[in-house]
Amino acid sequence: MIKKNFALIGAAGYIADRHMKAIKDTGNVLVTALDKNDSVGKIDNYFPEADFFTEIERFDRHIDKLKRTSLSIDYMSICTPNYLHDSHIRFGLKHGADTICEKPLVLNPWNVDGLSEVENKTGKKVFNILQLRLHPSIIALRNKILNGPKDKIYNIDLTYITARGHWYFASWKAQDEKSGGIPTNIGIHFFDMLIWIFGDVQKNTVNILEPKRAAGFLELKNAKVRWYLSVDYDVIPDAIKEKGKRTYRVLSIDNESFEFSEGFTDLHTISYQKILNNEGFGLDSARPSIELAYQIRNNKPIGLTGDYHPFALKPVEYHPFYKKPI
Prior knowledge:
Blueprint: E1 5-9, H1 16-25, E2 29-34, E3 51-53, H2 56-66, E4 75-78, H3 85-94, E5 98-101, H4 109-122, E6 126-128, H5 136-146, E7 154-162, H6 176-179, H7 181-185, H8 188-198, E8 201-209, E9 213-220, E10 223-230, H9 238-241, E11 247-253, E12 256-258, H10 267-276, H11 283-298
Parallel strand pairs: 1-2, 1-4, 2-3, 4-5, 5-6, 7-10
Antiparallel strand pairs: 7-11, 8-9, 9-10, 11-12
Helix pairs in contact: 1-10, 3-4, 4-11, 5-8, 8-11
């Protein structure tokens, strides 16, 4: 197979490591990378010969030069903060590269429309990393649901807590206009998974929407979902803390726990293999969860009324260093 040439924007981010590994594991080459931060020594683990830039103007010029050589860029991977995805995807498309972007693809539904127009103009494609759709256990669950009773409504509790320290609230991740807030930043891949398995959104209620947590209730075509997302270590069950873990991920379906904590190691590599085979997830796949996360972000929380997730009752501490609850 002919090696494909990759460029990467956002090389210093923690997720970039998985993308570099995926590029290497699929037998391709990272030619050049960009990040405004120069703490990118991890590139040496994969592609020490890759050219690196901290200024997009010089990176742009370099990409343009490569287009006139045998090293022209086939794919551009995007691992930057959420609010920059739209711009950086456009950058890749306009340079004649198919783009591979981390989730969330973009923050707003109309950004998807804009990218579709650029796709049509350039003839290049946008691919989103939706790795939960490639998890063997989740594929098996979807097949089970699809082969089950067509009119059955499943009762689901989704609980996802991924503890973050104080740094989180001083970073772009805690700024809703840059990250999309908790529902988008840590929840969008779960919303995509639920819609993919249980069907389109029929009703969307938000109980809590705060910088540190969010909770709500969804009615999907084949499911009623109480969901809770948080970055608060304090609400992780003690049994999990005693194991030294800072993440708690549980999906309960009709009071039965569905386990998918393991099996994430190679999902980015599998995602890249699918994309290289033209089987990746494009704009149409990404749209439903983007629309849902946008609606949640702009809904007015109704508080603890109706059918809400039991974790919503857990208290949240306020940190005096910040002007709003964290």
